[in-house]
Design a protein that fits this description.
Helices cover 46% and strands 13% of the residues. The chain is of the alpha/beta class and 492 residues long. The termini are far apart.
Length: 492
C-alpha cells in the first residue's frame, strides 16, 4: 500500500520535536544554560553573604575543604540533579505542574545529599549558607522556568514547538480529539493524520475534520512515517483489543515513534490518579473527588495567611489607589457586586471601582457590542471604564480588595471565577460543579488567557481545577499569576 504525505497547514510548523535537529533538543540546551547560570550565581551569592568574598574560607572539620570547593561541588550536583530528575524532559515542557515539581525535587535531593555527606564526614557545613542557597536558588529556578514556559506558550500560539501526531481511534472519538487539540495549541500536539482501528474503515473518506485520513491501522509505522508523525495517539483505547494494542506497541520498537494513550476518562489528573500494573494490565485507579476534609482546612489556612501577608504588603499602594479612584470620578471607592460562591451561596465581592457609577444601568445598551460568548459579557473598549480604571484592570490592581473576601472566607486565593447571578441561569448541571469549591482571585482561567478564552474553554479549566486541585498546584498558579499580570494578556 502506498501512502502520500499530505501538505501541512502554513499555520502550524512542521518542525519535528525529536532528533538532533528537533526543537526539543535546542530548547533543552537553553534550559541547561539557564539552570547553570542561576545555580552558579546563587552559590556565589550564598558564599558572599555568609563569608564575604574570601574564596578560601574553610569548612570546620577534619580534612575539610574550603567553601569555594563546596560551592562548586553543590553547583555541579544541583545541575546534574536537574537532569537526573528529568526536569527538562520535552513531553512535560509547557504544561502541567510536573516540570516545577521536578525542579523542586532536584533542589531538595541536592540538599539531602549535602546533609548526608556532612554527617558522614563530620564536616560542619554552615546551615545559614545552605538555607540561603537552596531556597533562593529553587525560587529563582522556578521563576526562570515559568518565564520560559510563557515563551513556549507564545511560540505554540503561533504554531511552533509542536510534536506531530497520528490519532487512531473510532471516528467520533477521533473527531473530538482533533478538535480539542486544535483548540489547545499549547498542548504541543499537532495532528497530521488520523486512522481508525483494525477492521474499521471509512470508505471513500480522504479527511476527517480537515485532517488527512490514512485508513485502518494495518501498518502503523509506515502510516505514521507517511504523514510525518512522531507519535501515535491512541484515542479511546477500548476500540482496540488488548492483543491489537500490544502489537501496536511492539511495532513501534526501534522506530523513534512514540505511543500516547488517551483513556476514555478525561479531565482527571493529579493526586486523584494512580497507575497500578495488575496481571500485565496498566490499571488506572481514580479516586472520587471529595470537597471537604483536612486538605480543605489546610487550603483555608494557606489562603488566609497569604491574603493577610499581601494586604499588609500592599496597604500603602491600596491607599494611593483608593485616593486616585475617589478623585478621578464621582462614586464610591469600592465597587460591591453580588457574586455566587461555594455551594451557590451569594456574597458581596469587593473591587476598586474601575467604571463610572452608572455602569450597571448602561449595560443593557451595550449588550450588542459583547465581545464574549456563552454566559459572559466582555468588551475590549468598554466606554464605562474610567481612565484610571483602565490602568487598574490592565494590571489587575482593581482586584486587590478581594483579599478581604479571602480573609472573610468568601473566596480563595486560587479557584474558579466567581460568577454573577445572571450567568447561573444559563448554566447546565455540568457547569454548576465549579461551585463545589470556593471561587478564587486567580485560577487556571486567569493564567491561561483570562478574557481571551472562549466560554467553553474557561468552563473546562474551572471544572478541571475543581476536581483535581492540590496545594502545590495552587502555589504554581499563584506564581504564574504574577507573570500573567505583567504580560497583561487577556486583561480588559
Amino acid at each position: 500500500m502506498t501512502f502520500i504525505r499530505p501538505s501541512i497547514s502554513d499555520e502550524t510548523s512542521s518542525e519535528r520535536m525529536g532528533g538532533k535537529d528537533g526543537w526539543s533538543l535546542k530548547y533543552q540546551r537553553r534550559l541547561f544554560l539557564t539552570d547553570a547560570f542561576v545555580v552558579s550565581v546563587t552559590m556565589v551569592l550564598a558564599h558572599a553573604v555568609r563569608f564575604g568574598w574570601d574564596p578560601i574560607a574553610p569548612v570546620v572539620g577534619t580534612s575539610a575543604p574550603t567553601y569555594w570547593l563546596v560551592s562548586l561541588a553543590i553547583a555541579l550536583l544541583w545541575i546534574l540533579q536537574l537532569g537526573w530528575t528529568r526536569s527538562r524532559e520535552a513531553r512535560i515542557l509547557g504544561h502541567g505542574p510536573q516540570e516545577f515539581q521536578r525542579v523542586v525535587n532536584a533542589s531538595w535531593l541536592t540538599f539531602a545529599i549535602i546533609a548526608i555527606v556532612g554527617f558522614l564526614t563530620q564536616w560542619q557545613i554552615s546551615r545559614g549558607y545552605l538555607l540561603f542557597a537552596i531556597p533562593l536558588g529553587t525560587a529563582v529556578l522556578v521563576l526562570y522556568r515559568a518565564a520560559w514556559r510563557h515563551w513556549v506558550h507564545a511560540q505554540r500560539d503561533n504554531g511552533e514547538l509542536q510534536a506531530q501526531v497520528l490519532v487512531v481511534g473510532p471516528v467520533r472519538t477521533v473527531e473530538q480529539m482533533v478538535r480539542r487539540l486544535n483548540r489547545a495549541r499549547r498542548a504541543g500536539l499537532h495532528v497530521v493524520g488520523v486512522a481508525t482501528p483494525p477492521g474499521l474503515s471509512l470508505s471513500g473518506a480522504e479527511t476527517v475534520v480537515g485532517v488527512p485520513y490514512v485508513g485502518s491501522v494495518d501498518n502503523a509505522v509506515d502510516q505514521a512515517r507517511a504523514v510525518g508523525a512522531e507519535y501515535i495517539l491512541l484515542a479511546g483505547s477500548d476500540a482496540m483489543s488488548l492483543a491489537e494494542s500490544r502489537r501496536l506497541g511492539w511495532s513501534l520498537e526501534d522506530t523513534e515513534i512514540g505511543l500516547i494513550v488517551a483513556p476514555s476518562l478525561v479531565d482527571v489528573a493529579g493526586p486523584r490518579v494512580q497507575m497500578s500494573p495488575v496481571e500485565g494490565l496498566p490499571l488506572m485507579y481514580v479516586e472520587t473527588p471529595i470537597f471537604a476534609g483536612f486538605k480543605y482546612w489546610v487550603k483555608a489556612v494557606f489562603d488566609r495567611a497569604v491574603a493577610a501577608a499581601l494586604l499588609i504588603a500592599s496597604a500603602i499602594p491600596m491607599a494611593i489607589i483608593g485616593l486616585v479612584v475617589k478623585f478621578s470620578s464621582p462614586g464610591p471607592v469600592l465597587f460591591r457586586q453580588q457574586r455566587i460562591g461555594q455551594n451557590m451561596h451569594p456574597f458581596l465581592m469587593l473591587k476598586f471601582r474601575s467604571m463610572h457609577a452608572d455602569a450597571e444601568q448602561r449595560l443593557e445598551d451595550l449588550i450588542d457590542a459583547n465581545d464574549g460568548d456563552g454566559a459572559l459579557f466582555k468588551m475590549r473598549d468598554d466606554p464605562r471604564v474610567t481612565g484610571p480604571g483602565r490602568f487598574l484592570r490592565r494590571f489587575s490592581l482593581d482586584e486587590l480588595p478581594q483579599l478581604i473576601n479571602v480573609l472573610k472566607g468568601d473566596m480563595s486565593m486560587v479557584g474558579p471565577r466567581p460568577p454573577l447571578p445572571r450567568e447561573i441561569a444559563e448554566w447546565d448541571e455540568r457547569v454548576g460543579r465549579r461551585q463545589l469549591v470556593k471561587p478564587g482571585i486567580t485560577g487556571l482561567w486567569q493564567v491561561s488567557g483570562r478574557s481571551d478564552l472562549p466560554w467553553d474553554q474557561a468552563v473546562l479549566l474551572d471544572l478541571y481545577y475543581t476536581e483535581n486541585w492540590s496545594l502545590g498546584g495552587d502555589v504554581v498558579i499563584l506564581l504564574r499569576t504574577f507573570l500573567a499580570v505583567f504580560a497583561r494578556r487577556g486583561a480588559y
